[in-house]
Amino acid sequence: MPQLPIPQRGQPLDVSYINSIVTTVNDLVKQVSPTSSNITKIIGDTTNSIPTSQSSVLGVVKNIANSATVTAGEEKSFDIDFSFKYPPIVVATPWNKGNTDSGKNVSVFINNVTTSKATLVAKFSASGTATVDVNVLIIGIPNWNV
Question: What domains appear along the chain, each with residue ranges and CATH number?
Answer without folding.
Answer: 38-139 (2.60.40.2080)
